[in-house]
Amino acid sequence: MRDYSDQIANRDPNRDVEITDIKACVVEGNFEWNLIKVETDAGVTGIGESYRGGGVPELVEYTKRFLLGENPLDVERLVRYIFQEMSGHGGTTGKVVTAASGIEIALWDAAGKILDLPVYQLLGSKYRDEVRLYCDCHAGEAYAVEDGATAYADAEAYSPEAYAAEAARVTDMGFTALKFDLDLPADNDPDPYNGRLTNGAIEEKREIVEAVREEIGYDVDLAFDCHWDYSVESAKRLAHELEEYKLMWLEDLVPPENMDAQKEVTKATRTPVATGENRFRVFELSELVSEHGVDIVTPDPTTVGGLAETMRVADRAEENYMPMSPHNVCSPVGTMACVHLGAATPNFDLLEYHALEVDWWDDLLAREEPLIRDGHIEVPEKPGLGIELDESVVDKHLLDGTTGF
What we know:
Strand content: 15-25%
CATH class of the largest domain: Alpha Beta
Number of helices: 13
Number of strands: 14
Pfam family, one: MR_MLE_N
Domain Mandelate racemase/muconate lactonizing enzyme C-terminal: 160-272
Order of helices and strands: EEEHHHHEEEHEHEHEHEHEHHHEEEH
Distance between the termini: 34 Å
Largest sheet: 9 strands, mixed
CATH superfamily of the largest domain: Enolase-like C-terminal domain
CATH architecture of the largest domain: Alpha-Beta Barrel
GO molecular function: lyase activity
Protein name: Mandelate racemase/muconate lactonizing protein
GO biological process, one term: amino acid catabolic process
């Protein structure tokens, strides 16, 4: 078995640093945010975030068996070390990669603080001073997420008027790009299992899209997410029906496992198609990109393997003249990691913001000014991610039954 442990004997003493501890905690926002800390003997602590949901803190704890004493500046080597040492745990995909993603982000933050450079500079370049966001919106009380399930609201919550009103509210905040969920209770009638849409269900979606477009016009970018719900024929019918509304994209139309099905849908419509958030590492996205199974690729850096792995996906996309818009349902920690990624990636387009309903989102950071201004986040020039946690706010919002750092 390959050995990715530290084999280096020749290193500048100023960069001869060791990891002394790795910690994780779960903050309950609109999702369960898995926050990570990497502590070092240089007196520097890096912070990161893994994708939401269970199992991550246990996996982070396991990595201490082999990462303590390692040099945090060797970010990519240590990520490979995690994959190798945990290969028997499903380490090439799934939750191990998710946990590694958060550790990787924390390592970049620590490395930037040790070297006195912002993360984007460590990643190689700066292409933009600010990152544009698209705001993920919900019409009224359209849905709630609890323990990984989607609980639909009453049908009236999904009226076209409710979508249009929310679109107006969010554009008034300064956002120039929006996304709504388009999977609805009617999708399950008359059968909740086969993924086939009736003509009535498609017409209901068309009326929603039309109402939003009439409210915000065509100068605001508009996307809709379908959460992998539909059969190929229904996905094609829906995408065709919405072509006239000039969408930024339709997202996750069909289940993610079958590449041929994905390509069939993408090539059948003039409506741009986006997907990619629930795939792991560049290997699971390479064919999707190279075969043009998607128009806009949407990896999640806190899922796919971290910032460097997301840049590998972006490289494949750039080779195929394809933009990348990362999926992001994170706290400000994961969001700022994505901001540095956006600064460093030439074919980056927009970043998702998915915490509009969390009124204490900004409070999680020890800073005076809000992160988001007029639908953009400025790329920080401070070392590392350029942010620090407010530990008191972290402790206040810990998931019930869990402990903090």
